Amino acid sequence: xxxxxxxxxxxxxxxxxxxxxxxxxxxxxxxxxxxLEPNKDVRIINAGDNAERLQAVxxxxxxxTILSPPTDIRADEMGLKQYxxxxxxxxxxxxxxxxxxxxxxxxxxxxxxxxAANNEALKYVKDPANRDEVIKIIIEELEMTQSDAEKxxxxxxxxxxxxxxxxxxxxxxxxxxxxxxxxxxxEVSLEDLVDESFYPE
Length: 201
Known about the structure:
Elements: E1 13-16, H1 22-33, E2 43-46, H2 50-58, E3 64-65, H3 71-77, H4 101-106, H5 108-126, H6 131-142, H7 146-156, H8 168-180, H9 190-193
Parallel strand pairs: 1-2, 1-3
């Protein structure tokens, strides 16, 4: 969510979630990408979750924030201007699956079974023939209206990776960006973080 003329952002605040959180890291990246230094040109305040960040913008405490469905729909209804960050962060991994070392070493069959089930779920969700059923599940599980469920689903669908595959360029971006923000001093490589042996055949 942003004003169209980025020069207007100088001297204003942006609503983040909490320091070190992915929302704040994306926000800092976006600002730098547009020639604005976080906490110098634009102050980042920790405002909380989606609804609280939207409220901060609505009440004038912040000039912009990052929102995800369905809160972005509320912002649309308020007439706020939008900027699609994912058009720039094309490799960003929106969904992550994490397991600790003990589970990977001692029970690899659990991860293989989970990834196989996840793959089947993704195939089902991405099949246009199942759209109505998926929308129905969203409405029931997330207690959303038909319209909100459809808009949210259409927004999220392009970000769902086949087989749950992680985007390696996105992980590399995350490593470098976290390092640039000063949130991590440790040297980390793709090999340290990613194990692709659990993808279903």
